[in-house]
Write a structure and sequence with these properties.
Blueprint: H1 4-10, H2 16-21, H3 23-28, H4 34-44, H5 58-71, H6 90-94, E1 100-105, H7 108-113, H8 119-128, E2 131-137, H9 142-157, E3 163-167, H10 174-184, E4 187-189, H11 192-195, H12 202-221, H13 223-229, H14 232-237, H15 240-251, H16 288-291, E5 388-390, E6 396-400, H17 406-416, E7 424-428, H18 436-447, E8 456-464, H19 468-478, E9 484-492, H20 504-508, E10 518-522, H21 530-539, E11 545-549, H22 558-569, E12 575-579, H23 587-594, E13 601-605, H24 615-627, E14 633-635, H25 642-649, E15 663-665, H26 673-689, E16 698-700, H27 710-721, E17 725-727, H28 733-742
Parallel strand pairs: 1-2, 2-3, 3-6, 6-7, 7-8, 8-9, 9-10, 10-11, 11-12, 12-13, 13-14, 14-15, 15-16, 16-17
Antiparallel strand pairs: 4-5
Helix pairs in contact: 8-9, 9-10, 10-17, 12-15, 17-18, 19-21, 21-22, 23-24, 25-26, 26-27
Keywords: Leucine-rich repeat, Phosphoprotein, Repeat, Signal, Ubl conjugation pathway
InterPro entries: Leu_rpt_41 (IPR026137), LRR_dom_sf (IPR032675)
Region (Disordered): 204-313, 345-371
């Protein structure tokens, strides 16, 4: 109950533990603790965080980073008196503020978090953590993998993690990677693996106990009938699902204090029946020895043959378990029985059943055997979903800089086919090549699921194995429900004649009407042929944002044709972006775009607009923008504006202007401090003429030559910030000048 001025003076003298406890009192007194947390960051972390201007809560930023640094052993709490408090438990007290966590190297962080003394820390993370990242992973021992299994189970299956990202893994351990993917998808082998761990999951046991009570209740309701018929044995047997629930209850092990239970998304392993590769029609065995550096003994599982004429249901989980309950990883890879002929096909001829083929390309199969994804004898990509429970799964999966081979792609495809909670998938620099067809097969199967929520797909890689537009057509043909599609490649395939056999259905398939709202294409210096883009745009009536990057224009008329197609086919287009597209000889088309009444944001980024232009062209741009009342944002980075063109752009806001332009981006335009100051003075004059009111609110000035005269730059920025929000950076222009000269 201290007065505000006393509390304000007291806060910097508190340890982190007491500063946390004083938050409520400070809020009631109207005193902000943000300056204290910011100073604590500067004193302890001694670094400037990226995007520090956008940080809204320094308390959360500090405690989240503090948690990560302590967990990974890079911060000594005894180094600062504010951290060294006998009442302060670093991981426990900071864990409720952690929404993003990165695990590195040999998973030491996972081992620490699943230790018994950090039980409460893990509980806090289960409620607060949203994003889980893996970065620079290395091979680890069995104990670390066990800890990872328990961590993923608690944070994903019984927690609140919605995004899993795996980054920078040049030589991935296939088994470990697919383990992370499968648990992210909500799959986990049933409870006997946990029963032998010192900290079994109480949530799973409670669910198993609840399931095991259901058959008993149903048996009591049928008790009278059972007595009359003398069939008490049937009461105990119940349905197959009830028998399985009892088995899970038994396998869950002895009771332990239950954990807090956020509701699971699903507790059954229900998957679409049409995916033949996840049906239990063969005798699977573990093939982990084929993929792991350390061979493990081969284990087989006996298959119980169903009665003739009776349909097996793919919704039912396997009744059996692997022979060795200590092996937590058999559930990751399973293959059909392999004989010397390499045959994987297993047909069923029982009455009322269709043929089942593990390698067929039947509709709905997660991997239909496209080019680059042909299933060989003994592939490791078949995931025994019947042997696993289905739990809550994440909605976003990101894989950055991780080579994905054929086995991993098949496993991922199989997971994707029933990953109904997945909304966003990012595949970046994975060396997919033709294996992209395998991934699309799984996504196509997923799109047919009635509860599918998949909306965003981003694919980027070094090399493209097919033309960008052909790949875009393939994706939209398979996934018409997409809202955002981004396809990006750096280079064409570097080996002539190495392009795999084409899928004829891709380039010729008719694109159904799609829900696409955002389309981003980065061409590997390919020609932009409007004729190839036309079918995509015709099918995308809802398109609101289009970005074309690094394309070449094969003829002078091509851009004009594109503008005509955009006007006819995309009435809802609001944002149009060109990056690294040479528009120096397309001044007429640039002016037509700037006067389009439907566009609200236009970007010409590194498009060489003024490379061979005259002063008249700049005047025409300014006059066109002045007359366009719908344009809100104009981005012109990397177009060699220089000082004199920047000063001229201030006339957009003159007294006779009807422009509604709010945002202007002039980054990377060789602007010097004296030019910026002159622009500022001219802008101030227009504001006075208009009675102090202009729509202009944001100016971006990244990577300009403002370091050449710091005093003039500071004056210009100070006066500009009284007019609008200015975003700039501290940048060494000497290197930039060398780069500029090199491309002149």
């Amino acid at each position: 109950a201290l007065p505000g001025h006393l509390l304000r003076g007291l806060l910097p003298l508190l340890t982190v533990f007491h500063l946390e406890r004083a938050e409520d009192a400070a809020r009631r007194a109207g005193v902000s603790t943000q300056p204290v947390w910011r100073k604590l960051w500067d004193d302890v972390m001694k670094t400037r965080p990226p995007n520090s201007e956008s940080i809204t809560c320094w308390r959360k930023k500090f405690l989240e980073t503090f948690f990560s640094n302590v967990l990974h052993g890079v911060l000594d709490v005894s180094s600062d008196w504010r951290l060294n408090d006998c009442h302060f438990s670093p991981l426990l007290h900071s864990s409720p503020h952690v929404s993003q966590l990165t695990l590195c190297n040999m998973l030491q962080g996972a081992v620490e978090l699943t230790a018994e003394h950090n039980h409460k820390v893990l509980e806090n993370l289960a409620g607060s953590l949203q994003i889980l990242k893996f970065q620079h992973l290395l091979s680890c021992d069995q104990s670390a993998r066990r800890s990872l299994v328990l961590l993923l189970h608690r944070l994903i299956h019984h927690g609140s993690v919605s995004q899993v990202s795996v980054c920078s893994w040049p030589v991935p351990d296939t088994l470990l990677l697919v383990l992370i993917l499968s648990m992210s998808a909500g799959f986990w082998r049933s409870g006997n693996a946990l029963a032998h761990h010192s900290s079994p999951c109480g949530l799973c046991r409670e669910e198993g106990k609840a399931q095991s009570q259901e058959p008993a209740q149903e048996g009591a309701e049928r008790g009278c009938t059972a007595e009359r018929e003398g069939s008490s044995g049937e009461n105990q047997k119940g349905s197959p699902e009830e028998a399985e629930a009892r088995m899970n209850s038994v396998l869950s092990g002895p009771k332990s204090p239950p954990l807090r239970n956020p509701a699971c998304e699903e507790t059954s392993s229900e998957v679409p029946c049409e995916h033949t590769s996840i049906q239990g029609g063969s005798s699977p065995r573990s093939s982990s020895e084929q993929l792991s550096c350390h061979p493990v003994p081969r284990k087989t599982r006996r298959r119980v043959k169903p009665a003739a004429g009776r349909k097996r249901r793919c919704l039912r989980r396997s009744r059996g378990h692997y022979a060795d309950p200590e092996d937590l990883y058999d559930f990751v890879f399973t293959v059909a029985r392999e004989d010397n002929s390499g045959l994987l096909d297993k047909t069923r001829t029982t009455e009322g059943e269709n043929t089942e083929n593990w390698t067929s390309s039947s509709p709905g199969s997660p991997c239909a055997g496209h080019a680059g994804c042909k299933k060989r004898g003994g592939p490791a990509g078949i995931f025994p979903l019947k042997a696993a429970h289905r739990f809550r799964s994440v909605s976003t999966l990101e894989l950055f800089s991780i080579p994905l081979n054929g086995e991993t792609c098949r496993a991922l495809s199989n997971l994707l086919s029933s990953w109904v909670s997945l909304e966003n998938l990012v595949l970046s620099y994975n060396g997919l090549h033709a294996n992209i067809s395998c991934i699309l097969s799984g996504l196509r199967a997923l799109s047919r699921h009635p509860r599918c929520r998949f909306r965003v797909l981003r694919v980027s890689d070094m090399f493209s194995h097919m033309p960008c537009m052909e790949l875009v057509r393939c994706i939209l043909s398979a996934l018409p429900q997409l809202h955002t599609l981004s396809v990006s490649f750096d280079l064409k395939n570097h080996l002539e004649g190495s392009r795999p056999e084409e899928n004829p259905g891709c380039s010729e398939a008719e694109i159904p009407e799609s829900c696409l709202e955002v389309l981003e294409i980065r061409f590997p210096r390919e020609p932009l042929h409007t004729a190839f883009l036309l079918p995509v745009l015709k099918a995308s009536k809802s398109l609101q944002q289009l970005s074309l990057d690094s394309a070449t224009l094969p003829c002078p008329q091509e851009l004009g044709l594109l503008l005509e197609v955009l006007r006819e086919c995309t009435p809802n287009l609001k944002k149009l972006s060109f990056h690294d597209v040479n528009l120096a000889e397309h001044q007429r088309e640039v002016l037509l775009l700037l006067q389009d009444p439907g566009l609200q944001e236009i970007t010409f980024s590194f498009c060489r607009l003024f490379e061979s232009s005259t002063a008249e062209f700049l005047s025409e741009i300014i006059n066109t923008v002045k007359r366009n009342s719908s344009l809100k944002s104009l981005k012109l980075p990397g177009n060699r504006l220089g000082n004199h063109r920047l000063v001229a752009l201030a006339d957009i806001f003159s007294e006779d202007s009807s422009s509604s332009l709010c945002q202007l981006d002039v980054s990377s335009n060789c602007i010097k401090p004296d030019g910026l100051l002159e622009f500022t003075k001219k802008l101030e004059g227009h504001i006075q003429q208009r009675g102090g009111q202009i729509p202009f609110t944001h100016l971006r000035l990244f990577q300009n030559w403002l370091d050449q005269d710091a005093e003039t730059a500071q004056e210009a920025l100070r006066r500009l910030k009284a007019v609008c929000s200015v975003v700039n950076d501290s940048w060494d222009s000497s290197q930039a000048f060398a780069d500029y000269i090199s491309v002149m």
